[in-house]
Write a structure and sequence with these properties.
Order of helices and strands: HEEHE
Strand content: 15-25%
CATH topology: Alpha-Beta Plaits
Radius of gyration: 21 Å
Number of strands: 3
CATH superfamily: Cation efflux protein, cytoplasmic domain
Distance between the termini: 52 Å
Length: 121
């Protein structure tokens, strides 16, 4: 009976540790997403002020796609009007730099404007 109780305690503790790892990994994933969006928003607001055309930044969405050999972070920026030409290039470079500042240069970044379907992996 005493041995049976020890095995049950070990099993319960093991399950608790596994659940804690799942919760922690989800927390880190959500935290990365929040920091990426905040960094992008901060950098874009500063960059939009410098452009000649006036843009209204509405929302920023991001997702991470696991890929070999590098992960891909996809960013969709909802902005009106849709930037084009040199403004689009400038905003894309700014977004890429902001993402890599938060996540490090080991991830590829793709940026799309006003197209939520581009978030699909």
């Amino acid at each position: 009976m005493k041995g049976q109780a020890s095995i049950e305690i070990i099993f319960i503790v093991s399950v608790a540790i596994v659940l804690a790892f799942f919760v922690l990994s989800k927390f880190v994933s959500v935290q990365d997403d929040v920091f990426v969006s905040a960094a992008i928003r901060q950098e874009l607001i500063g960059q939009i002020e410098k452009l000649d055309a006036k843009y209204e930044l509405q929302e920023i969405h991001s997702s991470m796609c696991r890929a070999n050999p590098r992960d891909i972070i996809k960013v969709v920026i909802l902005i009106q009007p849709t930037p084009s030409g040199p403004d689009q290039s400038t905003l894309t470079r700014t977004t890429t730099a902001a993402v890599q500042k938060v996540t490090g240069p080991s991830k590829d970044v793709t940026v799309a404007y006003n197209n939520l379907a581009a978030l699909a992996c």
